[in-house]
Design goal:
78 residues; mainly beta; 6-stranded mixed beta sheet; 6 strands
């Protein structure tokens, strides 16, 4: 499944900014909190904003770079 997610911004104490595209095999819904691969090989908290998107949302030039969400975020964030 292809989803969109926004990263958690600690300085804002919330989720926001641009929604990024990811792939997942998890049964996610909008509002679910997940951990997504970050740029430094660590996982970053994010919130799902859209699910079940078509393949066409992925630019073919970037298709091999789309990261996978593999786990839920169980930490409560303020």
């Amino acid at each position: 499944m292809i989803v969109k997610a926004m990263y958690y911004k600690p300085w804002q104490k919330g989720y926001g900014g641009r929604a990024y595209t990811f792939r997942t095999n998890l049964p996610l819904q909008p509002g679910d909190h997940v951990l997504v691969p970050g740029s430094e090989a660590d996982e970053k908290p994010a919130m799902i904003t859209k699910v079940n998107l078509p393949e066409s949302v992925i630019d073919p030039a970037w298709a091999d770079r789309v990261k996978w969400i593999t786990q839920m975020d169980t930490e409560v964030r303020a």
